[in-house]
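TA notes, week 10

Several of you asked for a full example with nothing omitted. So below is the full record: structure tokens for the whole chain, then the designed sequence directly under it. When grading your own attempts, check the secondary structure regions first.
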């Protein structure tokens, strides 16, 4: 029995899962009224769990040193053109203090895989932030580490962790990353993080080189099965000093459609309208919110280092001050009928995995 796309949308909303051929149909192409029905369903599901609230995460890009060589990434170890920096603890704490005054209640510490930041240093940093801002959540996004390290960060007070799987297909993973990186270790990290009790974010780039619809399907099933609290989805954008410099970027339509599908498959997920989405289209983030997203991550990094954390070409907001970014985001969010919530914005109904960690 074959369904129409409108029926598939309703079935996905009710069951959060569909057989492969039906999910594949929703990946497009869709007729304009189907596209609109998918987004409307995604907005309704978001509103049922989170109302009109959109959460702000203050992103602090604290190091662009990286030991990895991901072929797509502008701060890969092999990029000699990248001008490297590290923020010291004082500057990071200053970013947080400024962010707090602007209404941020989550700080995301993101960086390359920089072992200068030992477990000890990162733990001290997390403790210092939590001491000064006990009402805030701290999110780490520092790549793959040992389980014991993740445990130590969690002990120190880290609440959440972002680690995109990038792709769940082993061959495609190898196409995007040289050895010794493996999808097995990536998934091991995600599993450890979940067991320890973090709110975990995974995710993929849309339109990464070599990505097929079948890969996207695999990722959708993987994520539905894993049950993350957050999913980071943005278009791949080429960077001029990487092996993928000549590859085409992911598209707006594809990204928006996937955001809406994820909202239906993971109704309570925290779903950012990413900076990459805002980079490929001037209203990308607003359109993301209209497709079911409910998080934005303005940059709190000091203006002097922002253009150095260049994961891809053309990254937006590298020249603005944090306060400008917040006002600009507030306007954008209001323009699509939503409002900025001053709160930690934890995942609805989140309870850490019981008896583990
Ligand atoms: N070292 C950390 C943070 C990586 S940067 C980690 O491994 O998790 C955060 C995300 O940016 C990556 O997970 C990747 O999906 C995305 N990214 C990197 N290069 C990109 C590019 N060229 N276009 C779009 N997104 C990119």
């Amino acid at each position: 029995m074959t369904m129409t796309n409108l029926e598939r949308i309703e079935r996905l909303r009710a069951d959060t899962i569909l057989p492969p051929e039906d999910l594949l149909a929703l990946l497009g192409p869709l007729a304009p009224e189907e596209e609109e029905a998918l987004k409307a369903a995604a907005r309704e599901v978001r509103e049922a769990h989170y109302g009109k609230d959109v959460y702000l995460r203050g992103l602090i890009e604290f190091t662009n040193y990286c030991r990895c060589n991901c072929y797509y990434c502008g701060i890969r170890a092999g990029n000699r053109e990248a001008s490297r920096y590290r923020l010291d603890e004082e500057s990071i704490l200053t970013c947080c203090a400024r962010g707090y005054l602007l209404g941020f209640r989550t700080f995301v510490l993101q960086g390359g895989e920089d072992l200068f930041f030992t477990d000890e240093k990162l733990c001290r940093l997390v403790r210092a932030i939590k001491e000064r801002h006990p009402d805030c959540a701290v999110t780490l996004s520092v790549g793959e580490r040992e389980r014991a390290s993740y445990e130590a960060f969690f002990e120190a007070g880290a609440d959440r962790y972002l680690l995109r799987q990038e792709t769940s297909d082993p061959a495609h993973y190898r196409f995007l990353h040289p050895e010794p990186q493996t999808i097995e270790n990536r998934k091991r990290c995600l599993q450890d993080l979940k067991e320890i009790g973090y709110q975990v974010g995974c995710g993929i780039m849309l339109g990464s080189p070599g990505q097929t619809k079948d890969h996207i399907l695999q990722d959708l099933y993987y994520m539905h099965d894993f049950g993350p609290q957050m999913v980071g989805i943005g278009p791949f954008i080429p960077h001029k000093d990487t092996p993928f410099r000549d590859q085409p970027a992911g598209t707006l339509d594809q990204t928006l459609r996937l955001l809406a599908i994820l909202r239906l498959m993971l109704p309570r997920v925290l779903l950012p309208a990413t900076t990459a989405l805002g980079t490929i289209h001037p209203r990308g983030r607003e359109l993301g919110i209209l497709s079911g997203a409910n998080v934005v991550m303005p940059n709190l990094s000091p203006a002097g280092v922002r253009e150095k954390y260049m994961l891809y070409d053309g990254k937006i907001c590298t020249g603005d001050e944090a306060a400008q970014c917040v006002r600009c985001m507030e306007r954008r969010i209001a323009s699509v009928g939503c409002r900025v919530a001053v709160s930690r914005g934890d995942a609805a109904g989140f309870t850490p995995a019981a008896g583990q960690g």
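Residues 72-73, 110, 112-113, 141, 143, 163-164, 166, 205, 234, 236-237, 239, 276, 311-312 surround S-adenosyl-L-homocysteine (CB under 6 Å). Use that as a sanity check on your answer.
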